[in-house]
């Protein structure tokens, strides 16, 4: 088996919903990070890239028909560079990295690029296709930005169709995560993001996005829009919960945003041949299914599976990047895994920086490599 290393990782700034990146297509966002990897690594022969693997979960609009391939071509890569798009919803970007690493490990390629792209702002509305010539009665129009649509009735009956905030409430109740604990965790995340941005810790991974606006002309988006550096515990505590008697609020939940990220992987042998110094080594990945109503606890089972497989323990980890879809979910995972919060998400995560949900996990690699 070939040893796999990560050479470089980049991302766009994160645009809030209907924010600075609202007019940028998801395939263009993907092309921006792919182009950046090519320009930042001139010694890498682009025609030797075996595959570009992107995570994307919407796929209902401009990101349809294999957005990874579209982004690859838009980035000016040779037509012989293949591309594929994966969908594991929130885990799609991480799945793309794992897919790329496995290709290299088994000798199916020496250079592979992984990542993800998503424009939640530009996700379209969809409706069911008529099953007969003339539809009768009211028709449902679904917003594909987030949530269930066209659900199989057996799935709904068996597992329910809880929204993501509802699953976070379920986790909070199951694992006794209080509102105060959630707000404090969100506040710490915001402050960590503020510090990381102010001291330039994230600058190396950021790729500016050029915007052409009829009113303001051309300008560049260079910073994340989602952080709230003026957050206080008082402000967070004052927010109303999303559900009656609930604990999840807009302040302790991640946002609906836009962005893209990409990671350059190759075999260590190829990196040595090209004279490149890796940012990190890829060790392995694991997945695990859980009850859908508490889906946010999934990282606990996947992490334990991987640690057991490679013979590591959480106590031996100096830096940990953990999905923060909701404070309730993150805290439940931290408690169940026995993690030291001081080394978890040291640069802030979802509430503070991002969550274009399909590319988020590839950015976890960016932060962990800083």
Automatic annotation (TrEMBL):
The keyword Zinc-finger does not apply. Keywords: Acyltransferase, Transferase. Pfam families: Thiolase_C, Thiolase_N. One of its GO terms (biological process) is phenylacetate catabolic process. It comes from the Bacteria. Residues 4-268 form the Thiolase N-terminal domain. One of its GO terms (cellular component) is cytoplasm. SUPFAM superfamilies: Thiolase-like. InterPro entries: Thiolase, Thiolase-like, Thiolase-like_sf_Thiolase, Thiolase_acyl_enz_int_AS, Thiolase_C, Thiolase_N. Residues 276-357 form the Thiolase C-terminal domain. One of its GO terms (molecular function) is acetyl-CoA C-acyltransferase activity. Signal peptide: none annotated. Belongs to the thiolase-like superfamily. Thiolase family. NCBIfam families: AcCoA-C-Actrans. This is Acetyl-CoA acetyl transferase. It comes from Halalkalibacterium halodurans (Bacillus halodurans). The gene is mmgA.
């Amino acid at each position: 088996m070939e040893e796999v290393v990560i050479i470089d990782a980049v991302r766009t700034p994160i645009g809030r919903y209907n924010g600075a990146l609202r007019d940028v297509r998801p395939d263009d966002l993907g092309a921006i990070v792919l182009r950046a990897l090519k320009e930042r690594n001139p010694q890498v022969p682009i025609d030797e890239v075996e595959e570009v693997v992107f995570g994307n979960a919407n796929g209902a609009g401009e990101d349809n028909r294999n957005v990874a391939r579209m982004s690859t071509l838009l980035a000016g890569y040779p037509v012989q560079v293949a591309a594929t798009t994966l969908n594991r919803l929130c885990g799609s970007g991480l799945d793309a990295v794992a897919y790329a690493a496995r290709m290299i490990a088994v000798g199916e390629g020496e250079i592979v690029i992984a990542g993800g792209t998503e424009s939640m702002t530009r996700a379209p509305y969809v409706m069911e296709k008529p099953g007969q010539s003339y539809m009768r009665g009211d028709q449902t129009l679904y917003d594909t930005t987030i949530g269930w649509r066209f659900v199989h009735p057996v799935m709904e009956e068996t597992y329910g169709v809880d929204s993501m905030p509802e699953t976070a409430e379920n986790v909070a109740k199951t694992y006794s995560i209080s509102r105060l604990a959630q707000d404090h965790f969100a506040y710490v995340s915001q402050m960590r993001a503020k510090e990381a941005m102010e001291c330039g810790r994230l600058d190396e991974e950021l790729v500016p996005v050029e915007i052409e606006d009829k009113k303001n002309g051309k300008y560049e988006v260079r910073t994340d829009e989602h952080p709230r550096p003026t957050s206080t515990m008082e402000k967070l505590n004052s927010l109303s919960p999303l559900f009656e008697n609930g604990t999840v609020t807009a302040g302790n939940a991640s946002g609906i945003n836009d962005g893209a990220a990409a990671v350059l992987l190759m075999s260590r042998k190829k990196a040595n041949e090209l004279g490149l110094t890796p940012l990190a080594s890829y060790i392995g990945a694991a997945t695990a299914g859980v009850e859908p109503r508490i889906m946010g606890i999934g990282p606990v089972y996947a992490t334990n599976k991987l640690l057991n497989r490679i013979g590591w323990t959480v106590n031996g980890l100096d830096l940990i990047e953990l999905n923060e879809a909701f404070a309730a979910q993150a805290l439940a995972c931290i408690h169940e895994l026995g993690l030291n919060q001081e080394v978890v998400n040291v640069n802030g995560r979802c509430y503070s920086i991002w969550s274009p949900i399909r590319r988020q996990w590839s950015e976890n690699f960016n932060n962990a490599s800083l």
